[in-house]
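Changelog excerpt

This revision adds worked examples to the README so contributors can see how folded entries look when concatenated. The first example is reproduced verbatim below.
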Amino acid sequence: MKRNAFAYLTALLILTACFGKSGDEAGNAEGRLVSRPQVNEVEVITLQRQDFSRQIRSNGKLSASSRAALAFGTSGEIGEIAVRNGRLVSRGSVLARLVRPDLELALERARVSLERSRWDLYDRLAGMGYAAGDTLTPPAEVLSLAKSRCGYDVAELAVRQARQDLEGTVLRAPFDGRVADLKQKVHDRTTGPFCTLVDDRRFEVDFAITEREYSFVKAGQAVRVEPFASGGSVFTGRVEDINPLVDEHGQISVRASVSNTGGLLEGMNVKVLIEQTVPGQLVVPRSAVVVRDNMDVLFVLTPQGRARWTYVHIVAENSTSYSVEANTDRGAELKEGDRVIVSGNLNLADESEVTVKP
């Protein structure tokens, strides 16, 4: 009895092993295991030609439209500083002064010498029969000779030189701008540039584009500029000039100007975006394109429910989509009305069986 029970249990286990498998494995008529193919769930879109917002992205650096390192016209001790870093000043404003009493005395000495020469000139003209102090009646050649003999011309030049030297002790703003790089203090001796003046109302941004993007960028075209550290602030500008040369890296230099409505700084690193509408493009989400064999590929859904491997070229791109065309060099075909797989395609192979998600 025990032996019959043992035999019955063994037979039951064998039957369970043969007919109780699930998933991808099951027994066939000969008792062999077979593999059921995996079916991938995907999402698809239908290709249509449409306007595509092409975006050219690059990185650049801001530089002020006007920028100057300012220095005194002479050396000496700083006696007054009228500004500080970040101060906005207008053209002609006094930024700082030097203490140079010797130059003040030199100007006064030159003025006294000029005055003495003037009286000598009047005496000479009076000796020629002209009225005292009359410098209008004498002919030009007579007046010039009289000035030369009394040293009037030299004395006049000495005054101009002394006045210029004294003006060099006063530093003025050559244009409207903001003060930067001010490090010196009162009583310091002047050493090199005193400060930098930056006109930050308008900036220039230099960036690079590729040869393929060259035909899409024109002078006067609108650009958007976003500082890396701005927290989402965007500034608008326009392309000013394009350098018609390609460098050793295959890039072309472009310069744009942008108005500073607040927040831009000299030397700031920024992202540059140029947008252009291109009509009649085959547009797919970025997720539709995958890389196979180091080439761009997308999968087209066949009527038989399989994924057809299709090589493509990316014509243009933006933050969400690609404009694509068939890579005919690889024998690919792509047309309006094709159903393109846009998700679930990361692990697909050519002719993979797929099922479309509802």
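The second example, added in the same revision:
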Amino acid sequence: MKSLYTQIEFDTAKCRDKLLLECEHCHGPFYKSKNRIQATIKNDDGKCKFCSPLCLSQEFEDSPSITCEQCGATVKKIKSQIKQTKHNFCCKSCAAKYNNAHKTKGTRVSKLERWLAEQLVVLYPGFEFHFNRRDAINGELDIYIPSLKLGFELNGIFHYEPIYGPEKLGRIQSNDERKILACAERGIELCVIDTYSVSYFKPTKAQMFLGIITGIIRSKISSLINRTPVS
């Protein structure tokens, strides 16, 4: 949407006042009400980008076809919509599915955690692993090995920086402290591993953290064997 009004004109206009825009197809001037412009900004529905249905249809005809990156469907999108994003989809549902599957931040269980879980059960088939369960301390531990009384927390960027604000960070860090105390009370050794540097999942980076965890597990097993009295 190309505006020909000033910010002052927009701020002082009433909801049904008309404001001047430029058609993105023919580049001619036209008017739309402030409330319609606000709805277009919120929903990105394209209804204030063209002066008439004719210009809208011609823009679609002139636009290239794109392939939805989620379902593979071929659809047409206006040029301005294609330029707005690196990824193109046929609908909001496909966009949501793709974005949820490709998150690098904010997911409840990260790709790194999933990958580590897959590797650990293969490396140690004789051990019982609890992943993201609450039964050990009445609070979620990323990895817990009951037979060793050994737990791991993988702390990413949200544990150190106020991504969602200082209050949210404070709650996260308070919860981290509570987990440490709860583990100490129950005789569980908790190892906190800083994964701050992992902004996106990559097996080569994940291998480093797997090495840290397996090294701690080996050390724990060795210490338990050495404590066991010889009969």
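Reviewer comment on example two: The chain is about 45% helix and 15% strand. Residues 203-227 form the longest helix (25 residues).
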